[in-house]
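Example record used in the benchmark description.
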Amino acid sequence: MLLTLTTTHRPATDLGHLLVKHPDRVQSFDLPAGTAHVLYPEADEARCTAALLVEVDPLKLGGGRGRRQATTPDSFTLGQYVNDRPYAASSLLSSALAKVFRSALRGESRDRPELAAAAIPLEVRVPVLRCRGGAELAVRVFAPLGWTVTATPIPLDEAYPEWGDSRYVDLTLTGTLRLADALNHLYVLLPVLDDAKHYWVAPDEVDKLLRAGAGWLADHPERALITRRYLAHRRALAGEAMARLAELRLADEPPADDSVETEQPAEAPRASLAVRRREAVLAALRGSGASRVLDLGCGGGALLTALVADRRFTEVVGTDVSTQALALAARRLRLDRLPERQRDRIRLWQSALTYRDDRLRGYDAAVLMEVVEHVDPPRLPALEDAVFGHARPGTVVVTTPNVEYNVRYEGLGAGRFRHADHRFEWTRAEFAAWVDRVAAAHGYTATIGGVGDEDPELGCPTQLAVLSRTDTDIRKEETTR
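Model output (structure tokens):
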């Protein structure tokens, strides 16, 4: 199996310093399943290519007294000896990367430390990669990491095109990244695409995954698939990894603090859509004059943190059906460390939004931020009744994705949603129709806007609606009380 790594950074031969492998020599390394060779097909100032060639010994791969053997996809008796492992890139190539380029994976270079920390132009080629899920999956996992992906299916037999494509692709990645980041992407994603690890997956594989995925896996749109496949579909290990990734995502989000204003440089990068969405929700709440606020479906507490930081909100309640999400929110809010007076402003309640909950009645405002799309469409009337009909806050702020904008996201295939748990995503017309119907049915008036950079044809990536109860309706309810 073969992997080539090319750069046009000048002088390109600095690649040898980063990999700690001299371009003038062929170097070989023993592996549990064979031998790895590093050589340079080309090496000059303008362009340098390092090749990692792994020769797999079927006897080593299949034998070994006392060793626990992974199952192979082949069902016949000699499947552990006669298979595609010597020829197609797989988890074996990932293991070779870890052994041969260990210091480069860690981002270390004694001779070129400044270059190891810099993004350089790179091209990676894996001419034969076993890819369960096809070329489209290769794009989905690599494109969000900054790579331009070319994944060409390999035909079963070029002489007989009617036989169709094989399970293999010819993969080329191009981009400007740190070498360490590129190698860690490959280390994790090659076995993910292969989806047939050749060795026993022990609990310490969770630590290996999180270490290699530091800085990118927690926010990857396919992190659930990546985690599940990397850990060989072992449910307990995948659950542990996902929980730890959720904690990392919360820790990486900067807490909001409206009392501090920082002067931004003229060329400061724009805030992420998630940050801008929270800012838009906070602005809508402030505009409503609310002081007692519900965050319905609060998840890990990103919005709760921003609400608590603003003293105009005298009571903040977060609800979620998931106890794990509420535990993460409590940890993010540092409830156990807050002064008693501050802690008394905050409530965390387990509650399902499709059932009436008397505790939620009487609040000034409620937020459904990226929540409704996680509800099965037949259950939406129950949510509408529970929130707008029973809880009846004075103002309800709703955000949801604009499905029309999805074509602007690279790697998001046609018909796919932005999150694996989304049950639907609305067009602007569908969202407006839902908002108008709910407002009319429950005595609210509504305004609709958007969050994020607006596309002249497709609108904003996030849709936002503010539904406010009429003064007449509020007075009528107060009289009834």
